[in-house]
Amino acid sequence: MKTLLRILFTIMALAPLGAAAQVAAPGECVMESWGGFLAPEPQTFQRREQIETDAGPVYAIEFGELKGEYAKVFLFLLDGENCFTKAVSFGSYALTNMLAEEGRIYHLDLYLPGEHVTLGFFDQPIPYEQAREMAIAALK
Length: 140
Fold this sequence. Notes:
Elements: H1 2-13, H2 30-38, E1 45-53, E2 56-63, E3 70-79, E4 84-93, H3 94-97, E5 106-112, E6 115-122, H4 128-138
Helix pairs in contact: 1-2
């Protein structure tokens, strides 16, 4: 599964709209709009769990050391029939950190095809269980 996710993320990160787009044309798959933000490179990652919800299965991904422009701690992907339809990430992006007086700023973001919503900002990493609860609520 780890190899499959890495291949999927890598392919989708090369989508034409990629990380350069702040607002992308809506489609069915969240990775079509936001692949550059959600792709794991250059970080290592592992699937932490699969969560069964009324909306469908959610894959919880945990990342290694924060690296890269779009560093993530956790990523939650809602699996539709053909692709991931929604995502919630908890991370610390380079651009956001330029606003920090010191240290890092962390944020929880909801990604939908063609749409991005920031759900909250944090001065420090939040525990996995808190991120999980917030992500599942947002992915309904």
